[in-house]
Amino acid sequence: MKQSYHEASARKRLLGVLDPDSFVELLPPQARVTSPHLPALDLPVAFDDGVVVGAGALNGRRVLAASEEGEFMGGAVGEVHGAKLTGLLERAVAQKPDAVLLLLESGGVRLHEANAGLIAVSEIMRALLAARAAGVVVIALIGGTYGCFGGMGIVAKCCDVVIMSEEGRLGMSGPEVIETAHGVEEFDARDRALVWRTVGGKHRYLLGDADDLVEDDIAAFRAAAIRALDAARPPTLDNLLAEHAFLAQRLHLFGTCRDALDIWRALGLKTAESVALLDTAGFLEAAEKIRLRG
Amino acid sequence: MEKHQFEFHGGRVRAPKAAPALVGVASSGNLEVLIEPAKLNGACRIEISTAALGFGKIWEAVLRDFFERHQLSDVRISVNDVGATPAVVSLRLDQAVDEFTRPAS
Question: pTM for the full model?
């Protein structure tokens, strides 16, 4: 039976993606390592500061894994939350597991924690790149309710592989942030069709930002993560130069487009208007020949 | 935030040698409940941290009902609440006990 990844909690997602009974949590809730900043603001804390980290197995392979809980402060990264992710990635450098899985669901930095949150996100990025440089493949899974934005959007794009569902969203500034900063004429955050064709999984897949697109199903994410176990893209100079060239070319091709629909048409997607209506299998078939590959 | 602590005595159901369990999330109208075995001379201790101020008597009534339903002893329960209604609190507490006492698969 299909079990929605979108609707599941961070813990349920993680346990469903990993091999049954393989997960051992580090700094579990009973350790009570909670935010030192939120009580000063008289705000509630969470026993795990909104992220579950630990070790487990994926298809018998040894992995480290983290899962962010969007329901707690939008999955935002505070000092403890960030330190747990950084510590996990540094552990990966030391232990060389077969992969690190990051089940991301976050609006980015937890603004309540200001500089501590900002520094935490930069530390995550540094540790992530160190893990990749040490030969550990880092895989991002994005399909939660709150999407993956801000600093964690950048973290996702620092990974070797990004797996998304249509429901997943990936971007820098989130829809509400754009609307607040630039006005509703620039971006109407309540226009769900606009939001999803701008930051949703299908668009990210067509643009080459996501490497795999799966059904909203925990088992489908698990299968995609298994496929990605050997898809390391070491951060070598050649690979970085190739990525820069790819991004420059993409900007050259689509830099003047005002809407994702324009990009889809320019890609040669004949049924651009009906992309949102296609089921995952139908979409993957339509996208196969024309999608960009980063 | 407001903190409350309650202790109930005379529970007949000893904590299994279970792993701690966490249910729910600290988000608007919701709460997280952490339940774990603890040597408390047979008591069931419940610690509440809540964003809703001035509801101490309601907490006590809801938790007394909960204790009478399950009769737990040597159990520590910790709650981070963000304004959940009494019904939601009761359901989450029951869910926590269910997870805690379920035999490991």
Answer: 0.96
